[in-house]
Specification:
Length: about 325
């Protein structure tokens, strides 16, 4: 019964109102990430003891440059549930997104001391310190939720694909556009994005048993390296954006219409598998709206699509944005 419910939770988030492309257009459905929600939820419900959640996507060209509203809310819903289940949780972000992430944490009464802020240019051995003596010293799971990651370089592309494919790659991605973090408009945002992806690229050196999870909606987020570069770039709605797909892989990849939806579905699935739906019962539509309003004002935060300081996500009116969560609550009899 739980398996059927989790499958339905996944179906509810696999819609693409913002027409990002990864979930297919009207009448078709790409299978990217199908089944990952169940596997990721089972991992967290059965093995998690210390979880690190990574989030924060800065929008430098916004009306008020700030972190976007997609990512931190979903991250803190998941963090709060895990904390209430007795699991150690650390939220990791960078200096540009710290104020927005901490504003959401305060709304949840999630201690801001558990929000670890990585400087824009960390020390060379910062990952070693993080995993050996820092918040990740006991880590069992590493999760990215709407966190930009770097694209491919020619060298990394060749490690995964064949020599003939390189010509196609170079046709789409010239040398000067390789290896950076980009927003969905194809703009390089390295100047506002600390290298948090290095946690995912190095975790196996320190904790080889750790399982990693990525949650994204556009192709430029940590975790999307699990998918074929050619398929992602062919799905993106804009021309000339082959440099956007992120190269960083995760063990599981949850693809959703917004990353918050992916995190919320994972939260609901873990609560279901642990038979603790009571822990999420109070998270109503009104709770979500208040959280977004506080984040926008106190963060500040902006809608990642419109760039406006408004309590919306990816350009979706709140009533559209909240619909999947309302359907999840109905499915789970909340």
């Amino acid at each position: 019964m739980h398996d059927e419910l989790v499958t339905e939770l996944e179906r509810l988030i696999r819609r693409d109102p913002g027409q990002r492309g990864l979930l297919g257009q009207t009448g078709e459905q790409h299978q990217f990430g199908v089944g990952s929600l169940s596997r990721a939820a089972t991992e967290l419900a059965t093995r998690a003891k210390s979880v690190v959640l990574v989030t924060g996507f800065y929008i430098p060209g916004a009306n008020i440059p700030a972190s976007e509203t997609d990512g931190p809310p979903g991250t803190l819903y998941l963090a709060k549930l895990l904390e209430q289940l007795g699991i150690e949780v650390t939220v990791v972000t960078d200096s540009y997104s710290a104020s927005a992430v901490k504003s959401v944490a305060r709304h949840f009464q999630f201690s801001t001391t558990q929000v670890h802020v990585v400087p824009q240019e960390p020390e060379a051995d910062w990952c070693r310190e993080f995993f050996e003596t820092g918040p990740g010293c006991q880590i069992t799971h590493l999760v990215a939720i709407e966190r930009a990651g770097p694209g491919y370089t020619s060298e990394i592309f060749l490690e995964r694909y064949s020599e003939p494919d390189l010509a196609e790659f170079l046709n789409h991605v010239p040398i000067e556009r390789q290896g950076g973090c980009h927003n969905m408009r194809g703009v390089n945002i390295d100047a506002w994005t600390a290298p948090l992806h290095e946690l995912f690229e190095s975790v196996a050196q320190f904790h080889p048993e750790v399982r990693t999870i990525g949650i994204g909606d556009g192709g430029n987020e940590i975790g999307m390296g699990q998918l074929d570069w050619r398929l992602i770039q062919s799905c993106l709605p804009l021309e000339g954006t082959g440099h956007i797909p992120c190269r960083v892989e995760t063990d599981e990849l949850i693809v959703a219409g917004t990353s918050n939806w992916g995190a919320l579905a994972l939260t609901a699935a873990v609560a279901l598998l642990k038979n603790r739906l009571d822990l999420i019962d109070s998270w109503t539509a009104e709770h979500h709206q208040l959280l977004l309003e506080k984040m926008v004002i106190e963060g500040p935060a902006v809608d990642g699509v419109t760039g406006q300081q408004e309590p919306t996500v990816d350009g979706l009116p709140f009533l559209t944005y909240i619909q999947p969560w309302l359907l999840m609550r109905q499915l789970l009899n909340l």
